[in-house]
Amino acid sequence: MKKRGQTQQFDKASFKASVKKHLVTTYAQNIETASDKHWYLAVGKALAEISTGNLLETEKRVANAKTRSINYFSLEFLIGRLTGNNLISLGLYEEISEAVTELGFQLTDLLEQERDPALGNGGLGRLAACFMDSLAAQEFPSVGYGLHYQYGLFQQSFLNGHQIEFPDAWREAEGYPWEVQRPELNQFVGLYGDVSSYTDDEGQQHRRWNPAVTLQGIAWDLPIIGYQNQSVFPLRLWECRAPVPFNLAKFNDGDYVGAQQTQIAAGNVTKILYPNDNHDQGKVLRLTQQYFHCACSIADIICRHLKNGHEINSLSKFEAIQLNDTHPTIAIPELMRVLLDDHKLSWDDAWAIVSKTFAYTNHTLLPEALETWSEALIGELLPRHLEIIFEINHRLMVQIEAKWPGNNEIKRKLSIIAEGQSRMVRMANLCVASTYAVNGVAALHSELVKRDLFPEFDELFPGRLQNVTNGITPRRWLKYCNPQLSALISEKIGTEWPAHLEQLEAIAQFATDTKFQQRFAKIKKQNKQRFADWVAENLDIELDTNAIFDVQIKRLHEYKRQHLNLLHILSLYHRLLNDPTFDMHPHVFIFAAKAAPGYALAKDIIYAINKVADKVNNDPRLNGKLKVVFVPDYRVSLAEIIIPAADVSEQISTAGKEASGTGNMKLALNGALTIGTMDGANVEIREEVGDDNIFIFGLLVDDVEKLKAEGYNPHTYYEQNSLLKASIDLLDNNEFDATDCAAFSNIRHNLLEGGDPYLVLADFADYVNAHNRIDAEYRDQTQWVKKTILNTALVGKFSSDRSIRDYVNNIWHLTALPK
Ligand code: 8GP
Question: Where are residues bearing N6-(pyridoxal phosphate)lysine located in the sequence (predicted)?
């Protein structure tokens, strides 16, 4: 019997038998002695039997439907643990929980055994994961293409407050139970070598690339399970290997290292995820990763297209490719190459396909994140691609000349090749010139893309630049991570909301209902307790759940301004110790953040927060009013327990710098009130929840520009605001660290002598005011709870289902699979 929401016939007895079979035959464990971890693996494998079957079925349905598919190209998919979520999507959570109990275990304990597949850095990778979930939930034909990194984002720990990094072997020794190899889909990829011309039998001239190196792409599929439907779509991750395991002749000669060199070099290609967020590092291995990803994925798409019986000329009718940032841009010249050189299409015919296939999402305006590759490097690694890039650029220049005759300034600005000592290929320009749609990720950001980043492109290609505001999947970020709140909502408005988040608006009517407020507040308290228990157990810090839980969880970056948060904490510390009239509601500041290993100031900020935490958490003079917790090794599974416990959500980037943010959406959905600048999606959150239910502060984008143009001087703010001065001075007087205060003085130096590039000092006073309002308003619990309910009720817009529908309607033009 199937119950409502359940997609599968479920037979408990045979499921239990399957788990035991996997425990013994797949993992070679004795039933009597197997650990929780092996039981989790066996449960995962037994469930994967269901999803793999459905994956193959869905592939057939897609082929039969003969409609367009979206291929989401991303170097990052920060999927987080899959098992719990997949159970929800399959509609089998209770059944499996029961089966596991009968086997003698708690499902929640087994789920804790799963290592997060950390195949992304932050927002960009997590967005890709939410989008895959929403594509499957709405049954839009889709494939996610990424890399099968052997090691995900590094694991972070703290040693005397300093960040330490370790490799993250997310697949562990046993492999990841949800993935399945697809050997029939493996591909070969060339690199280096040269290009030659030849004339075919009909007298046509062609170019041919003769690569010097060949790599093999091994296809691994992870199942993306549609929410309570039968569809499962692949997240296809490519692992790099050498086509031959080792050189037998060298091995026989006793050159054991030399015999394996090729394999070692190939293995390096997908060894690690580059740990940079909003920063481009320009390493050869990174370009190799990008090309390897694109070449395998393009080859896979074309194989599928031809296998389904279509002509190569109809490719763009059946396949769209979304480039998640510029990282997979090399797919554009790669598809051109395949069409020109392998399929012998003319330039115009090939371009007609390419320019209707690709669309590109921009995720940042930060100049240091906009990718450029040295022309010489591309020429060496991918000589044919460089020729094609030159030709695309030549044709772009012709178009510009036609629109702005004789205007070399515009040509220089829009050119794909940046002139200079060493010529560079600008990947964003290549994207805008070659795709049919370019989108920013929130309304404000998309406006700035048009106004500041690509104004001339906007004139040259009217309508190409668009907006799609980001979103988050409500299945993971409410139903799964906050089961009690989900149950309360379902009790009031029914159970359809996880697939139709706009329905949450109906709970707004209960915002002033005392009973509902009490239940809502009780759930928040229980979630705070769950997190406090975790902190007590793992970090040995006691938290009072009556305190305000104030959360800033995101990558550590100057533009995100964790140091503004820190300065505010220092101001509270100063006032508590020096101002007898000062009173505050107990407040816990919770941080979690990884810093890119090469980002020195970000690491200094982590260190400083850790040191301040040590001091304030143990200072009896503060009467427990102020606590600071820096949770190490931030990851999706930690976000799942921090977010439901948050009262306040810190979204405090310098206006114009945070393209969207998505943590802001997750926190608001779980009833945290935002303290934020008018930046990224904060602007739209404010529009939805209303000014009374959010704490907005700080300079606007135009103020920031004006201030910078006038010549911003942080010293003026330092001198004029005594609280700011006192707080900054605390950075420099050994208060928190008697032995190694370099980190503190680096921060201080950056803010004063370094010119304070992200205007921390300029926004400090208003930030403190906003915090004072929070302190006052939190004391009126009835009002506060009303606001938190309204936040949950009014952020339905930020479901990634809506984002996906925007892409589908305005960019991809897909139809959902027929039932
Ligand atoms: C991030 C943005 O910083 C964030 O605001 C946004 O929510 C997220 O993308 C998803 O759209 N951008 C990046 O992570 C980014 O641009 N990274 C690569 C360029 C290095």
Answer: 666
